[in-house]
Amino acid sequence: MDAIILQILNGLDKGSAYALIALGLTLIFGTLGVVNFAHGALFMIGAFCAVTLSKILNLSFETVDPTQTDFLGNPLKVKTPYVMEWFGAETGAAIIDWAVPLAILFSIPIMIGIGFIMERGLIKHFYKREHADQILVTFGLAIVLQEVVKYFFGANPIPTGAPDVFKGSFDFGVMLGFDPNAIIYPYWRLVYFAFSAIIIGGVFAFLQFTTFGMVVRAGMADRETVGLLGINIDKRFTIMFGIAAAVAGLAGVMYAPINSPNYHMGMDFLVLSFVVVVVGGMGSLPGAVLAGFLLGVLESFASMNEIKSLIPGIDQIIIYVVAIIILLTRPRGLMGRKGVMEE
Amino acid sequence: MLGLNKKDTSLLVIVAALVMFAPFILNPFPSDSGLAQFNAGYPDLMQRFVIFGIFAIGFNILFGLTGYLSFGHAAFLGVGSYSAVWMFKLLSMNVIPAIALAIVVSGLFAVLIGFVSLRRSGIYFSILTLAFAQMSFNLAYSVLTPITNGETGLQLTLNDPRILGESATADGSIPVTSLFGLEMRSTYEMVVGPWAFQFNAGYYLCGIIMLLAFYLSIRIFRSPFGMMLRAIKSNQTRLNYTGLNPRPYALAAFVISGMYAGLAGGLMASMDPLAGAERMQWTASGEVVLMTILGGTGTLIGPVLGAGFIKYFENIFSKINDTVLHNWFSFMPDGLEDFVVFLIHPFIGKGWHLTLGILFMLVVTFLPGGLVEGGQRISRMVKKKSDDDTNAKTTPAE
């Protein structure tokens, strides 16, 4: 029992990332009808927002401390970050420590801005073109974004730590009444799961309970009629693209402490996210979220030693196997809407 | 000639001439001049031109004719490479059985994947092929290590049985790949003044095979079968209504293009007996898509041009570094020189992929027909201009 709960928990953090990226992909597909291969790159840019902010916060100036000497006997040069100078040593240290959560605020405007530029500058021109063309141009864009990030940040992963409070893990099993040490779970993964649950809830609430969301949903169902009612649906869809970009970016920001950001993390996630979208059903938001968590948990179960000894290598391919089975038996996906992307 | 019409024959003859004289054409700069780094006439690069040409020609038979965009074609290339290397390990160092096995195995593999994937079309097909390719890639890295040797990649060793050949040569080293005794790596160097032209046996083998592959693709394009594939692309529903089942045709195209990929993989292993899983990664599949689109989808010569273009610039661009740039722009004032070098720096050397990505986006956006369409547009413009000129001359006379 405890092993099962542990695997479910282990699957949640990856599942959250899949769900968030797939949610953004589905939003873009549902509103604009565009297959966005550059969505993984947005996730990656989000993670690098966290890296950038922690670098900015660590900008420091050098002072010579005459009371201390280094091993050569010269006066020691001490680096003091500017934030420590401005806010005092303790507050400054706390701000640096909390760089990743702070990057959430920092990344939202950046991601929305990138989303706007992408939609207005490039994707707008591809609405009427074939899906193959959309895939190809966004694939090219993904390469470009990836290479730009590689140029500025280098090819190596950059470790970006969570705040000290959330470092380490805790004994989750004891809380549920199992033996101690049965379920050890890192704090940050729990934070990540809670965070993504909030984001997903927020997006759904926004679509369900606001006038803006209502118009967008109407536009997803029948774009032309909404346009005929005198509503500028294009503008709203552009905003939705920005929101989808922000969702992917936030998923990336919070993922930075789990996996040190590198320039190709987006591509790694993109393939899986597409599989998630297809399994959940093209154009279905709940389907994307459900499939994201489902596949995350399945993947973690498949990596259990008991199962691996039964079917070797299953942990590497489980997601693809599930996707192939679903596509062949239920091409609409788990919760796909009728008439979306059906030939 | 050979069952081709006049236009296709001349195309084939031109391509054949280009392939045969490539060591001259690609080596226009004397080896002691500063431009020598733009020479592409060395065996390794020329082999890659034609091998990726074969790969792209095959991909074009599927994507260009039927419109099915496969994102997992590199899997066939990888399978081909692995089977060829196994042939070198078990049978002999002759390349013919290795290439034959590579084609057969990748063909069988393509039948399997194609049979399943072709039940869906459009984006679902792309994702299915992508999923299959990633699966093969992951398996090659993990469970199939006894067959694929995992991360290290499959290599020849001195302990291989090689039933028809020898495990080790007389001096105790690993034997090299050959075609009935003609070593693939043997190169004849012809020195003419400051030029050094290299003629490599392996390159010519690849080149001849590429010409055969190209000829076959012309025949497929012009055949009733090719017409059927075009019908699948333009309107599958209508094809269904006329009482034809499009799936066997699409599957045949998929298998043919898979075999082309396997052939390319087998040749790659014949030139350099190594096979690694990274050849199967989906970025490698993306590369062949790039080549085909860049050259011109659905055209005969496009994929070959695209493959050559990408491989040439990949090699040349990644070799340019800041010192070279400083040399070029040394005529400028110092400050301006540094600035120009600073501007160009991100696009060269390791930044070649950035250039490629931008180029690709531009091509997809403005020139969906690729380089071939670009060439046609330019020739049309020139023609129109000359037409205008003749008109301008004649009008006043009337």
TrEMBL record, chain A:
Keyword terms, alphabetized: Amino-acid transport, Cell membrane, Membrane, Transmembrane, Transmembrane helix, Transport
What InterPro entries does the record tag this protein with? Answer: ABC_transp_permease, BCAA_transport_permease
Major subcellular site: membrane
Q: Does the keyword Transmembrane apply?
A: yes
Biological process (GO), any one: amino acid transport
Spans through the membrane: 16-35, 42-61, 98-123, 190-216, 237-258, 270-298, 310-328
Q: Which family does it belong to?
A: Belongs to the binding-protein-dependent transport system permease family. LivHM subfamily.
> What protein name applies here?
Branched-chain amino acid ABC transporter permease
Q: Which organism is it from?
A: Shimia litoralis
UniProtKB/TrEMBL annotation, chain B:
User: Pfam families from the xrefs?
Assistant: BPD_transp_2
Q: Where are the transmembrane segments?
A: 12-29, 49-71, 91-116, 123-144, 201-221, 248-268, 288-313, 325-348, 354-375
Question: Example GO molecular function term?
Answer: branched-chain amino acid transmembrane transporter activity
Could you list this entry's UniProt keywords, alphabetically sorted. Cell membrane, Membrane, Transmembrane, Transmembrane helix
Asked whether the UniProt record includes Glycoprotein among its keywords, one would answer no
Membrane topology of the entry: Multi-pass membrane protein
The reply on keyword Nucleotidyltransferase is no
- One Gene Ontology term, aspect cellular component: plasma membrane
Protein localization: Cell membrane
> What is the name of this protein?
Branched-chain amino acid ABC transporter permease
Species the sequence originates in: Shimia litoralis
